[in-house]
């Protein structure tokens, strides 16, 4: 499925429906082992993640992106409501953004709404949009295959 994209001033919102239960989709956000399998755009390799998944805990990511080089980001978790919402303050080096990930149960599917607030300009938003869209494509493949196995 494709992501619905909304861009407004310094805000980017992506909505995506996954053919998997909410608890499963949420679980793919909660451990470094799972995130390393999908959390990065197409062309990302050698994704290393350290995380302490709790309110006040931190997240650090380092990866290689083909044609770009090394990319690092970090975050601090502000709110975690299982399996409904994750909110964190992300530091991308040039800018910091508040990211809210919401998980809505819709029968056997999950509607995920991912909101980035605080982008410095449209170019940055466009880069985040492209990277996040391909990242969610990778997550979709994993949760779909796990759902089929069960």
Description:
- The structure is a single chain.
- This protein is α+β, with helices and mostly antiparallel strands.
- The protein has one domain: 2-Layer Sandwich (Alpha-D-Glucose-1,6-Bisphosphate, Chain A, domain 4), CATH 3.30.530.20.
- Helix content is 25%, strand content 46%.
- The chain is built from three helices and eight strands; from the N terminus they run ββααββββββα.
- The protein has helices at residues 22-27, 32-35, 122-149, and strands at 4-8, 11-18, 44-51, 58-65, 69-81, 85-91, 96-106, 109-117.
- The longest helix is centred in the last third of the chain and has 28 residues, at 122-149.
- The protein is globular and about 40 Å long.
- The mean pLDDT is 91.
Which short descriptors sum up this protein?
alpha+beta; eight-stranded antiparallel sheet; 46% strand; 25% helix; 150 residues; Alpha-D-Glucose-1,6-Bisphosphate, Chain A, domain 4
List strands and helices in order, with pairings.
Blueprint: E1 4-8, E2 11-18, H1 22-27, H2 32-35, E3 44-51, E4 58-65, E5 69-81, E6 85-91, E7 96-106, E8 109-117, H3 122-149
Antiparallel strand pairs: 1-2, 2-8, 3-4, 4-5, 5-6, 6-7, 7-8
Number of domains: 1
Structural class: alpha+beta
Largest sheet: 8 strands, antiparallel
Please give the radius of gyration in angstroms.
Answer: 14 Å
Listing every helix as H and every strand as E from the N terminus to the C terminus, the arrangement reads: EEHHEEEEEEH
Number of helices: 3
> Looking at this structure, what is the CATH superfamily?
START domain
Low-confidence sequence ranges: none
CATH topology: Alpha-D-Glucose-1,6-Bisphosphate, Chain A, domain 4
The CATH architecture is 2-Layer Sandwich
Strand order of the largest sheet: 1-2-8-7-6-5-4-3
Instruction: Sum up the overall morphology in one term.
Output: globular
CATH class bucket = Alpha Beta
